[in-house]
């Protein structure tokens, strides 16, 4: 195979998970409750009325999970730290729970011993409930900034000697729009002002954590730190000027409102124009800290949408657009997954990578990418593990990434499949499965799906030796 069909030697790959989705043991060894522990108790919020009390029991079965990672031949593993396991009440004056730190320390040491590089997310949505109760969580700029910085400092101090890759926050769009805008995620607020305040504060808190790392830890620990944003690729429904403008607006509302302040130093004009006074201003000191506050572009991406101008009655949270995956001529973009918003369209992935590279010029880590096979949850294990549609998805997306790197010159540094295991899929409960490993939730038995082997072989074939 010619070299230009390969990935650079230092390209990294693996699988991703998140604490609340896999750990379980919600009250073990001193863990405090998070906003997801509370939110899952609200009737009607979780499709099957389930929660993360047990999840995939990975707090107890982490050795078995690590064995899977080894079997799959990964170079890296991305997971998140449960804030309330480390600081049960969450705040800067609250007690630190050594048992929580030790859990992550053991896991990380074992990963490193096995040559698996840890990528750690500090905040994957499980805010300590106490901080939500005390001051409204992300709505209180001063408090959340100080508490998030303190939590990060505890993590850098106790784990930073063996962790070199940090992600501050996973998907601020989900945190703020789904959490504070339409109430689909914890803490379940519905508002047209709060999502913008929470997002603004989140950017500032993130920037202070990055600043702390750079000032106090980077020179000795020599790691990198950044943020993970999520975005679908978006295609205008047709060539009309209003739909082309709608596409640009939809990208700004999903991505630009986080990426532009971080990588360019200002909010997109389209956002300001629509929100006016509801969009908080940065002080000069704040924006100086936010601008440049990510060493890389962490990207979670799953799909592509067609975008149409939505008019007045559409959802302002997403920029007043209508989304879909059916072309004007009635044909479908790709294979439908188990979630309405997700269909296969690998060329869109390549376009998105090109767009990000051209717009922000930062090395990209794909921190999540994956596919829930339609109706997989109704299949037996023996059927579910032959996950043909997931393999097709991964085949298309990995090859699209390869073309973006080798033909278009996009700087992609790593790729993480979502997810190592079937797990608690937030508002969908356990009904939707994203894993490359099947989990039987009654017995906690793990069974590798064909897609795990597919990715192992694909990276074996495409990594320069
Ligand atoms: C991401 N959307 O969430 C999260 O980072 C994961 O924890 C999650 O399991 C995974 O993707 C699959 O859903 C998203 O509505 C949730 O567009 C919703 C959306 C996108 C990403």
Describe the structure.
With 465 residues, the chain is of the alpha/beta class. It has one domain (3-231, 254-302, 337-462): TIM Barrel (Alpha-Beta Barrel), CATH 3.20.20. 42% of the residues lie in helices and 15% in strands. It has 16 helices and 13 strands. It has an 8-stranded parallel beta barrel, surrounded by 6 helices. Strands 6-8-9 form a 3-stranded mixed sheet. A two-stranded antiparallel sheet has the order 12-13. Helix 8 runs antiparallel to helix 9 (194-221), helix 9 packs across helix 12 (284-290) and helix 15 runs parallel beside helix 16. It is globular. The chain starts with 11 loop residues before the first strand and ends with a helix. The mean pLDDT is 97. Residues 18, 21, 170-171, 174, 230, 300, 341, 368, 418, 425, 434 line the site of 4-nitrophenyl beta-D-glucopyranoside.
Task: Give the SSE map.
Layout: E1 12-16, H1 19-22, H2 35-39, H3 58-71, E2 76-80, H4 83-86, H5 98-113, E3 117-123, H6 129-135, H7 141-159, E4 165-170, H8 172-180, H9 194-221, E5 224-230, E6 233-236, H10 241-264, H11 269-275, H12 284-290, E7 297-300, E8 304-309, E9 321-324, H13 346-360, E10 364-368, H14 381-384, H15 388-406, E11 412-418, E12 437-440, E13 445-448, H16 450-462
Helix pairs in contact: 3-5, 7-9, 8-9, 9-12, 13-15, 15-16
The structure holds 4-nitrophenyl beta-D-glucopyranoside.
